[in-house]
Design goal:
Layout lengths: L5 H5 L3 H19 L3 H52 L1
Length: 88
């Protein structure tokens, strides 16, 4: 069974995390019994389960990028104002 990243796991709700852990346990058991034919649908269910958390992670990244852009623009504007004051 493929685990999702720590970042994604950290963004799962309590219910999603409980379901994720249960599915991973079932999938690991099935793999230990060499029942890969049954472990495959379980992995697909895990993949579907983590999609909302992946979207939340993407949103956090976009928000961080937006904040960085605003900071850089504010810094540039502040620098432009300082340059204008020096010219006077």
């Amino acid at each position: 069974m493929r685990h999702c990243s720590v970042q994604v796991r950290g963004l799962l709700t309590r219910d999603e995390l409980d379901r994720y852990n249960a599915l991973m346990e079932v999938g690991s058991y099935l793999e230990s019994q060499n029942r890969y034919d049954l472990a495959y649908p379980v992995q697909k269910e895990v993949d579907l389960l983590i999609q909302p958390a992946i979207e939340r992670l993407k949103d956090k990244g976009r928000e961080r990028d937006r904040a960085t852009q605003e900071y850089l623009e504010a810094k540039r504007l502040g620098q432009d104002e300082e340059d204008d004051e020096e010219e006077d």
